[in-house]
Write a structure and sequence with these properties.
7-stranded mixed beta sheet, Rossmann fold
């Protein structure tokens, strides 16, 4: 799962026993050599799905990490592109890799942007927010967008109980719950706390109009349904 340039088991253990912010600061120099970095195939499929909806003006990557989302924003946005994250270590890596972008350190549960962006994206971040925290996150993204602005992110289809991945993800989440019950500070990272129906409800409550689009380039499940979909949450108003 990890390349030779990735973190050692000891480094991963230290990260997992840290806070989310400190853990990602520690992991940042090797993050792009782990399976936690969003694959290029997912980024490219997202960009392809968004292209007919653009072009866009200014773009924002929410929970940008080391800046992989710039692969989506750069060709789609005609204005400035910005990444926001609360890990200084991840932002340092992003700044080195993408010096043309702007980088902001902030807690995305309390975003201070106001009507600045036409497109916001996020990749692999929802599991770092407990369900009770999603309303603040989505409200901040809503404020950051101009009327007619779009918030887009890929989301995987639920795994059937017959899939080994179903049990692997369930086991991971249970292990994290035990870890957080007995160890402080907590490290919030769950795979099963953001089902599509709950995410849609929270986005709608924040004021978004929500649709989804299949990302068929990423393959289909045995029943023929797409493995991934793209959530398209639009702030109502002039486009």
């Amino acid at each position: 799962m990890f390349s030779p340039k990735g973190p050692s088991l000891r480094e991963l253990t230290v990260q997992a026993l840290s806070s989310v912010e400190r853990g990602y600061d520690l992991l940042a120099p090797k993050f792009d050599h782990t399976p936690f970095r969003t694959p290029d195939a997912v980024l490219d499929a997202t960009a392809d799905a968004l292209r007919p909806l653009g072009p866009f003006g200014q773009g924002l990557d929410v929970c940008c990490g080391t800046g992989a989302g710039m692969r989506v924003l750069r060709p789609l946005c005609q204005g400035r592109i910005t990444g926001v994250d609360f890990s200084a270590g991840m932002l340092a890596q992003a700044r080195r890799a993408h010096p043309e972008a702007e980088w902001v350190r902030a807690d995305v549960r309390d975003l201070r942007f106001a009507g600045d962006f036409d497109l916001a994206v996020s990749f692999g971040a929802l599991g770092h927010f407990l369900p009770a925290e999603r309303p603040a996150l989505f409200a901040g993204v809503y404020r950051a967008l101009r009327p007619g602005g779009l918030f887009a992110f890929p989301i995987g289809a639920p795994q059937p109980a017959t899939s080994p991945w179903y049990w692997a993800l369930l086991g991971f989440d249970l292990a994290m719950r035990v870890r957080n019950a007995v160890w402080r500070p907590p490290f919030v990272m769950y795979y099963r706390t953001c089902p599509l129906h709950a995410v849609r409800d929270d986005l709608s409550a924040a004021g978004f109009t929500v649709t989804t689009a299949p990302l068929t380039a990423l393959g289909r499940r045995e029943d023929g349904s797409p493995r991934y979909g793209l959530v398209l949450a639009r702030r109502p108003g002039a486009s």
